[in-house]
Amino acid sequence: MQITVYGPLRSATGEKTVSVAFDGGTVEDALGVFIENYPRTKSQLYTNDGQLRISARISVDGERVNLDDECPADAELTVFPAVQGGTDKNSSGLE
User: Fold this and answer.
1) Nearest 5°: CA angle at 70, between 82 and 36?
2) Domain ranges of the chain
């Protein structure tokens, strides 16, 4: 399976696109294999209680999917990590 990552996930994988061995299953299964191969990605995708971060986005062959959707072994997975940061105040600290 080919997996394309964006943002800080790229520093955890070392490349924009990586390959992992995946026999097919659900999107959650595919993410599990991805995390097994690249453990540093887990904290960027999942909360401490094991829930996919709300702003993390996953697509299979260009279509946005849910974790329980089917994912074929030959699919192309795209992973956008959770967006973090931001405040209600001016970022310069000036008001």
Assistant:
1) 55
2) 2-80
